[in-house]
Amino acid sequence: MGRMRRIWQPEIYYHVTMRGNNRQNIFLNDGDFALFFRALYKANSKYPFTIIAYCVMNNHYHLLIRSPEVPLSNIMAIVNKRYSEYFKRKYNYYGQLYETRYFASMVSDPISLLNVSSYIHQNPINTKGFIAYKMENYSYSSYKYYVLETESPYPFLNTKLLPSIIETYPEIKDSDYCSYCENFRLPIEEEKSPQSQGVLT
């Protein structure tokens, strides 16, 4: 059976996830995390894209990303290949680094963007093992840039869109994006499989 055809819509954001094979750790120290962001920077210099939320954990990562010019697969191929080659070379690692191809689900409406980004940002405080008491204390997440309202060092990170959505929907009771993230609760039926409605891209 052939692989599922990948779908790309340039105007749509995608929630991308990638996990280490057998859920093993693929980011072991600060240098590994730094190299991953350099891989993103390298890909962005070739194919410009926008990320509005990210979280890189020890054994997986999340990106909320839009690729307006080329299929998202072009970008992910650069990022994942570059990081995999680095990891294998540094640690003398042989075999498959990633569990499978990256997974991506379309996030097509503003409220879903808020919800998915909140889920991504809550990763460090919702993991089974202790990572951080507060979302903003985790170094490898975009959330700190929202809390501190500081410029990101990454040209691909846009922290303006999500706060603007809050302002557009007066029915949202939270006063700002960070409050929304703090108060967000994933429905019980989705907790076990946040990717259940995804499509490969």
List keywords for this structure.
about 15% strand; 8 helices; four-stranded antiparallel beta sheet; single chain; about 200 residues; disordered C terminus; alpha+beta
Q: What does it look like?
A:
With 201 residues, the protein is of the alpha+beta class. Helices cover 39% and strands 13% of the residues. It contains eight helices and four strands. Strands 2-3-1-4 form a four-stranded antiparallel β-sheet, with helices on one face. Helix 1 packs antiparallel against helix 2 (72-91) and helix 3 packs across helix 7 (177-183). It starts with 12 loop residues before the first strand and ends in a 10-residue tail after the last helix. Residues 188-201 have low confidence and may be disordered.
Would you kindly provide a brief summary of this structure?
The protein has 201 residues and is an alpha+beta fold. Helix content is 39%, strand content 13%.
Cα-atom Rg, whole angstroms? 16 Å
Tell me, rounded to a whole number, the average pLDDT: 88
Count of DSSP strands: 4
> What gap, in angstroms, lies between the N and C termini?
18 Å
Number of helices: 8
Q: Indicate the structural class.
A: alpha+beta
